[in-house]
């Protein structure tokens, strides 16, 4: 039995176009598409459309536009800000790209990969690895997040300090625009000054300007030498000083540099299986350092030992463990990647994905911690993240035994408290998660005036009916 508010004519046309596996209307089948990963938003949809080709996606969008039906693009559904969740009206359709999951080409000369939007990041990474290459983007949700969603949100991740965000890695795109037209800018060119860079307009637009269907992604040679270490440091300043020490010696060797607070690490050790602390005792803060090189004979171990040796002598590092095998390296990274899951298991949490200039990170963490602890006594402040590029996930976990709903009811107060400090330090309230529907209310004060007005004009020009992912990025007028 179907559950849908679609007009009969549209229902029939979509069913004929997409077939039984591509057109879902039963609420049992559509439920998982209507809830975000954090379970903050529970929406409804008229149907879930799962096109298998760009042509089918374009035709489906054209049909929806003709009937005035809102559309919510969705990839792996891993958004942290409700960016791929429909509202509660049940009028929208979700357009999922998961069936568009082919790896089309790997080009060794150009060092590129051409993939459809529904390919998961992990699948793309594995395909590159089989060819002796590396897709350098790495995020915690890479097993679920797909290429289309990653580009639509301009995901960053662990290796941004060396390779940049998704924006820097995408050379070409194909996308279905809000009117159903197919935009094809699938070029592999590093240099192409022929008007507006339309791919960059779509990257980071969170599905509000179109549905990315295919992409050309830059690859790198697979590292043949890699050294990874987990270090105990006294605080965020200590982690930043350690980063500066490695950067002074050889900035090109740093592939990732991650910060973890003692509170966040403690949750991982307590709540995640097979993630014990591999150091002799807990510390106030930790840094995960990874050096990498495509040269097999690169002396990265010597570099790692020299920098850490000096850090031990100065008291900057009190303990450290170096990975002696690929298994040990993966175990160290597992500890880092499980921070979000551990916080989820610890109860309700409020996530602040912020960025500030590197020099301001210690001041930010100190001031924001004090402010949040004063706001909600007993709150567990659990920051971690990409300290090498200035992006800290300043996450706040409910006090032990507190009511989750009561805690989340204060989410705006907590986010505003953190954001006000970020603003004074010249930062951004969203570094890599986007705006979604969670943080639209912040846009007028942060991006108001000519900036937000220009965004609205672009949106209105490309999507005059406001049918493509309505309710995301832009605050309600």
UniProtKB/TrEMBL annotation:
InterPro entries documented for this protein: FAD-bd_oxidored_4_C (IPR004113), FAD-bd_PCMH (IPR016166), FAD-bd_PCMH-like_sf (IPR036318), FAD-bd_PCMH_sub1 (IPR016167), FAD-bd_PCMH_sub2 (IPR016169), FAD-linked_Oxase-like_C (IPR016164), FAD-oxidored/transferase_4 (IPR051264), Oxid_FAD_bind_N (IPR006094)
Gene Ontology BP terms: respiratory electron transport chain
The family this protein is said to belong to: Belongs to the FAD-binding oxidoreductase/transferase type 4 family.
PROSITE patterns the record matches: FAD_PCMH
Domain named FAD-binding PCMH-type: residues: 41-222
Keyword Coiled coil set for record: no
Provenance organism: Acetobacter orientalis
Highest taxon listed in the record's lineage: Bacteria
Protein name stated in the entry: 2-hydroxyacid dehydrogenase
Keywords attached to this entry: FAD, Flavoprotein
GO molecular function: catalytic activity; FAD binding
Cofactor(s) needed: FAD
Keyword tRNA processing on entry: no
Pfam families: FAD-oxidase_C, FAD_binding_4
């Amino acid at each position: 039995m179907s559950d849908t508010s679609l007009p009969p004519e549209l229902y029939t046309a979509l069913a004929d176009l997409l077939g039984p596996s591509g057109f879902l209307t039963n609420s049992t089948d559509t439920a998982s598409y209507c809830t975000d990963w954090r379970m903050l938003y529970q929406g409804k949809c008229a149907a879930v459309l799962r096109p298998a080709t760009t042509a089918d996606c374009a035709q489906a969008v054209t049909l929806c536009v003709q009937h005035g039906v809102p559309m919510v693009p969705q990839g792996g559904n891993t958004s942290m800000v409700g960016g791929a969740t429909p509202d509660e009206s049940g009028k929208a359709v979700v357009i999922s790209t998961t069936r568009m999951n082919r790896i089309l080409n790997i080009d060794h000369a150009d060092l590129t990969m051409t993939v459809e939007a529904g390919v998961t990041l992990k699948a793309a990474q594995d395909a590159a690895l089989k060819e002796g290459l590396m897709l350098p983007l790495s995020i915690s949700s890479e097993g679920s997040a797909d290429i289309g969603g990653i580009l639509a949100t301009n995901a960053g991740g662990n290796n941004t300090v060396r390779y940049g965000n998704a924006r820097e890695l995408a050379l070409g795109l194909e996308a279905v625009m809000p009117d159903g037209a197919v935009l094809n800018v699938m070029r592999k060119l590093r240099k192409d000054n022929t008007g507006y860079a339309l791919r960059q307009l779509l990257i980071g637009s969170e599905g509000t300007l179109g549905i990315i269907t295919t992409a050309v992604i830059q690859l790198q040679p697979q590292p043949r030498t890699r050294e990874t270490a987990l270090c105990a440091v006294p605080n965020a300043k200590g982690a930043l000083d350690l980063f500066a020490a490695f950067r002074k010696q050889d900035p090109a060797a740093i592939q990732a540099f991650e910060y973890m607070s003692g509170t966040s690490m403690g949750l991982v050790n307590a709540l995640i299986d097979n993630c014990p602390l591999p150091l002799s005792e807990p510390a106030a803060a930790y840094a995960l350092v990874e050096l990498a090189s495509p040269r097999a004979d690169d002396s990265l171990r010597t570099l790692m030992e020299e920098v850490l040796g000096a850090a031990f002598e100065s008291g900057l590092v009190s303990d450290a463990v170096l990975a002696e095998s690929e298994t040990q390296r993966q175990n160290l990274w597992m500890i880092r990647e499980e921070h979000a899951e551990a916080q989820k298991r610890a109860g309700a949490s409020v996530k602040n994905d912020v960025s500030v200039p590197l020099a301001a990170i210690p001041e930010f963490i100190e001031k924001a911690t004090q402010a949040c602890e004063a706001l909600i006594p007993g709150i567990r402040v659990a920051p971690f993240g990409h300290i090498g590029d200035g992006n800290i996930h300043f996450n706040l976990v409910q006090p032990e035994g507190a009511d989750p709903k009561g805690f989340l009811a204060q989410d705006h107060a907590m986010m505003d408290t953190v954001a006000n400090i970020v603003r004074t330090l010249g930062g951004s309230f969203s570094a890599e998660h986007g705006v979604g529907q969670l943080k639209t209310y912040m846009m007028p004060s942060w991006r108001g005036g000519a900036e937000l007005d220009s965004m609205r004009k672009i949106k209105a020009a490309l999507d005059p009916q406001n049918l493509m992912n309505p309710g995301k990025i832009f605050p309600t007028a």
